[in-house]
Amino acid sequence: MKFSSNVSRLRKSFIFVGAGIVVGSLGAWGGVQMSGDDRPEFAVEYAHASTIGDFSTDERLVGFADFVFHGTVVVRKGTTEIDGIPETQWAVKVNEVYEGTLQAGSTTVVNQTGGYDEDTNSLMLMEGDLPLEVGESYVFSTRKMSDRAWYTMVPAYGAQPVGSTTQPFPTAEDMDGDGTSTVGDHWKQMVRDQVEPDIGAGAEPDPTDEPSEQPSDVPTGEPEPTDPAD
């Protein structure tokens, strides 16, 4: 899978009102209209990235990501758009850091490719990724562009549900030397053993469209990226 803002829309499908699992995941968002107003019937569009890399193993996933951390979703901040593709922004509290310079205890902004469009009453999902859930915790594998104030999830693999990093993970090495093998040990091991994935000859293109708002400009009064030292 190629991680970029260019999305192939040659293959896409739609699910209408019967898509209960998707509709259920949107319940906390508000604004989703199944019927009863002038907007089209609610639909889900599935978009697919061009397939030139394999991130199906955690070693390759971590090898591609710049920042890997365990975090809890605090709130949905809104939706922005890059190169015509919606991205949903989430405020995430960082619990444990495996790779990168984020600090545990801080709150940052994570972008998930795909999002809900109120005007068309439709939800675009990249590679079938359902929206994150507020209050749930994940191991995030993300990339960051130098000119952006957020971290973008690797589609399909970049948010793996993990309630607690102290859960047993028998196949992991005991990276902490405390006599137990845990989920946290697994991700530390993946960082140590990471493999640079082959993403083909094509270079990742630079985005050409800037979003209309930076996360810090969204007038929601919701958490912004913070430094625990402040």
3D architecture notes:
- The protein is mainly beta.
- It is built from three helices and nine strands, in the order E-H-E-H-E-E-E-E-E-E-E-H.
- It has helices at 20-25, 58-64, 183-192, and strands at residues 14-15, 43-47, 67-82, 85-99, 107-117, 122-126, 137-143, 151-153, 159-161.
- Strands 3-4-5-8-7 form a five-stranded mixed barrel.
- A hairpin with a 7-residue loop joins strand 4 (85-99) and strand 5 (107-117).
- The longest helix has 10 residues, at 183-192.
Oligomer category: single chain
Q: How many DSSP E strands?
A: 9
Query: What class would the helix/strand composition place it in?
Result: mainly beta
Q: Main β-sheet, in a few words?
A: 5 strands, mixed, barrel
Measured distance between first and last alpha carbons: 39 Å
Taking all Cα atoms into account, the compactness measure Rg is 18 Å
Shape: elongated
Q: Roughly what percent helix?
A: 10-25%
Widest sheet: strand ordering: 3-4-5-8-7
Helix/strand order, N-terminal first: EHEHEEEEEEEH
Q: Average pLDDT, to the nearest integer? A: 78
